[in-house]
Amino acid sequence: MHDFLDEIRSRLDAIRAEGLWKTEAVIASPQGPRVLVEGREVLNLCANNYLGLADHPALRQAAAQAMEERGLGLASVRFICGTQDLHKALEARVAQYLGLDDAILFAAAFDANGALFEPLLTDQDAVVSDALNHASIIDGIRLSKARRLRFATGDMDDLERQLRAAREGGARNILIATDGVFSMDGFFADLATIRDLADRYGALLMVDDCHATGFVGEKGRGTPSRAGVRADIVTGTFGKALGGALGGFVAGPQPVIDLLRQRGRPYLFSNALPPAIVGAALAALDLVEGFEGDERRAQLDTNTRRWRRGLQSMGFELLPGEHPIVPVMLHDARLAQEMARRLLDHGVLATGFFYPVVPQGKARIRTQMNAALTLPDLDQALQAFRQAGRETGVVI
Ligand SMILES: *Cc1c(COP(=O)(O)O)cnc(C)c1O
User: Fold this and answer.
1) Three-class SS string for 79-119?
2) Is 351 labeled as ligand-binding?
3) Rounded distance between C-alpha atoms, residue 299 and residue 289, angstroms
4) What does pTM read for this prediction?
5) Domain Aminotransferase class I/classII large, which positions (predicted)?
6) Do 273 and 334 lie in a common domain?
7) How many domains does the chain have?
8) Pocket test for ligand 1, best of 210, 215, 234, 273 (most atoms within 8 A of CB)
9) pLDDT for the residue numbered 1
């Protein structure tokens, strides 16, 4: 036991020595465009709070009312005695919003992706997965007995090669799995081409739309809507644009949802979502489908374009794109940490990302826009980037 802990300590030392140690900023306020960190109010440029709903009065009110009327929690998994009318309402609401048959709730999108593949696919089937897919998709696929094929991220020729290999290998059913948006880069999957290949090879298409639901596409219906195509199965989260609390879902064809309710392990062996979370998610969907949703999406878009333009004009290296994820490339992990530290000194919270969440040599500060940031906020944040960038020699 003693040796084992020493071994762990030396692995921790190695992580520190490589400059890969992650620390956590402690926030003493609600999540929002400005947060309280180390006793100071700072601008926050790294939450997935795309629509600024994490502290929205209508969602807080809906959460409070649901807790008042339905209690703190269910103390049960769904099938034993943990299903309330609110859960049924939210599942129907998600399915209707996304234009799919039905939906099933999970404690998190991580669990939704963890639940999906194992019951759906047998050893006679194949899953073809983008190499950059979220960790929860990778883990979910590992749990299934299906043949696994990977395609280089965004490489449609490689996707076709893998689909052909799956067909030639005699797969009965093929499922293509992709993120709608790749969260480290803000790149969109090429869903138009992927849909076309899925149809040509008789495959189903699964899209994880965690970084899109609520704000991408018409009424925020996500990346399939933006690309003008249909996804067969969509997984998503209530922990990002749709209020930022917790909870995930799978939406799709009725037999898929029915099977997950019977056989999905994170569904069968884990507690039901609490009423407050479910009530807030229902309110979030009402909001994003309404006029306020349109306004917030328009503001998010304006902020994203202004932010990109500002950083670019100062000479920062960005990854190209349109998504509110705007990565500022620094390449070196220590430099990313130093930049983040100085940004905080200048009043901006923006976390450095480095190995293992991005490849070695691709360290960055992943900035994210949200609809609650004002234009003066953005100007102030740009000034902080200029100062921190000069101090670290990243820009002149
Ligand atoms: C955030 C994220 C998840 C996990 O969502 P949670 O609801 O927080 O578990 C899954 N997939 C992708 C692509 C994500 O970005």
Assistant:
1) HHHHCCHHHHHHHHHHHHHHCCCEEEEECCHHHHHHHHHHH
2) no
3) 15
4) 0.96
5) 41-385
6) no
7) 2
8) 210
9) 67
